[in-house]
Amino acid sequence: MNFRRGMTREEPEINFIPLIDVLLVILIFLMVTTTYSKFSELQITLPTAEANKAVEREKEIIVSVTADGKYAIDRVLVNFVNVSTLAQELQRVAGDRVDPTIIVNADAGASHQAVVNILEAARLAQYPRLTFATQTGSSR
């Protein structure tokens, strides 16, 4: 039964303008309240030490390695062939010193393998006392 014969029925329509207004307000709110975190690569700070300059002792042997892999024992360049020759050089430099302390002075750009070579040479030469040199002062 259609009692309204002459009237046409209007289709319901959705008005998107208020919806867009609400979404824009939410978007602005999210942009203002969002914290942006900066992701960067791993930052490493080399060790530093706050101490007086160490007095050079007789039982110390300073073994240095540069960034390009050159070795020096007590400030004298050593030709590195393998670990056993480096151990022989350590024994030669130590001479008659009993149980010397090996101070490893590695450049910041030196490879880990170069430092491990020094540690292995000290082990082969049977010098168990090792220490590492650090920068003095604060570099932070």
UniProtKB/TrEMBL annotation:
GO MF, one example: transmembrane transporter activity
- How does the entry describe its membrane topology? Single-pass membrane protein; Single-pass type II membrane protein
**Which ranges does the record mark as transmembrane?**
16-36
One of its GO biological process terms is:
protein transport
Keywords of the record, alphabetical order, are: Cell membrane, Membrane, Protein transport, Transmembrane, Transmembrane helix, Transport
Q: Where in the cell is it found?
A: Cell membrane
Q: Which GO terms describe its cellular component?
A: plasma membrane
**Where does this protein chiefly localize?**
membrane
The protein's matches in InterPro entries, at most eight in alphabetical order, are given as: ExbD
Family, per the entry? Belongs to the ExbD/TolR family.
Name of the molecule in the record: Biopolymer transporter ExbD
